[in-house]
């Protein structure tokens, strides 16, 4: 397997979480397989999550931590995002990172359009994996919520800026899993890391 440049972002805002555990499992396995890894934990980043302005003309300068995250996205060939699902969406700090860092002229170009009339993505040629935890049973998430957060991440965020395909791994019942369940999930994440998937 060819070596890949992989950027892993643990999007859980807490210092300790399943997302952090899985991020580290993924990185360890991918490094063992010979891939080039960079990892960032959202908890360690210092930035203002509030975009503030109503448009892009007066966007405030990116803090160094956000500049580094975006440079790592540009550097990567494969992006792995780990996140919990809270109230059907992303944690506020992770959403703030996306609001602040995924800007026109960097992540997409509003002056050029795709065949569908959407802004031109500027992070083309990259793939992504989302590893998501929640307490929502997968069948309920699929048939009742219709994979709303998956569709948002796959189409309206990552796909919008060029990450295709974006594959999703969902672990449900994440608030109080037993040791055996965490070990089983960790084996799945380790396998993803070994295959840079």
With strands numbered from the N-terminus, the spatial order across the biggest sheet is: 2-1-3-6-7
**What is the β-strand count?**
7
The general outline is globular
Structural class: alpha/beta
Q: Whole-number average pLDDT?
A: 95
> Which band does the percent of strand residues land in?
15-25%
User: In percent, how helical is the residue content?
Assistant: 25-40%
Helical element count?
A: 6
Descriptive key words:
alpha/beta; oxidoreductase; 197 residues; Rossmann fold; two-stranded antiparallel ribbon; Flavodoxin_fold; globular; single chain; NAD(P)H_dehydrogenase_qn
In terms of topology, how is this protein built?
Blueprint: E1 5-10, H1 18-32, E2 36-41, H2 64-75, E3 78-84, H3 92-101, E4 108-113, E5 119-121, E6 126-134, H4 138-143, H5 148-161, E7 163-172, H6 179-194
Parallel strand pairs: 1-2, 1-3, 3-6, 6-7
Antiparallel strand pairs: 4-5
Q: What would you say this structure looks like, in words?
A:
The chain is an alpha/beta fold. It has a single domain, classed as 3-Layer(aba) Sandwich (Rossmann fold), CATH 3.40.50.360. The protein contains 6 helices and 7 strands, in the order βαβαβαβββααβα. It has a 5-stranded parallel β-sheet, with helices on both faces. Strands 4-5 form a two-stranded antiparallel ribbon. Strand 1, helix 1 and strand 2 form a beta-alpha-beta unit. Helix 1 packs parallel to helix 6. The model has no long low-confidence stretch (mean pLDDT 95). This is Flavodoxin-like fold domain-containing protein. Belongs to the NAD(P)H dehydrogenase (quinone) family. It comes from Pseudooctadecabacter jejudonensis. One of its GO terms (cellular component) is cytosol.
């Amino acid at each position: 397997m060819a070596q890949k440049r992989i950027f892993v972002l643990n999007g859980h805002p807490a210092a300790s979480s399943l997302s952090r555990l899985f991020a580290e499992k993924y990185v360890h396995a991918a490094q063992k397989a010979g891939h080039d890894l960079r990892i960032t934990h959202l908890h360690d980043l210092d930035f203002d999550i509030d975009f503030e302005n109503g448009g892009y003309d007066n966007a405030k300068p990116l803090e160094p931590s956000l500049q580094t995250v975006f440079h790592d996205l540009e550097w990567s060939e494969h992006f792995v995002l780990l996140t919990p699902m809270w109230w059907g969406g992303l944690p506020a700090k992770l959403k703030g990172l996306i609001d602040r860092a995924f800007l026109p002229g960097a992540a997409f170009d509003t002056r050029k359009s795709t065949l569908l009339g959407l802004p031109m993505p500027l992070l083309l040629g990259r793939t992504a994996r989302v590893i998501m935890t929640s307490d929502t049973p997968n069948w309920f998430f699929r048939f009742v919520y219709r994979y709303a957060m998956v569709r948002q991440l796959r189409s309206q965020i990552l796909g919008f800026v060029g990450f295709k395909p974006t594959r999703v791994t969902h672990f449900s019942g994440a608030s109080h899993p037993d040791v055996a369940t965490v070990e089983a999930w960790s084996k799945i994440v380790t396998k993803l890391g070994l295959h840079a998937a």
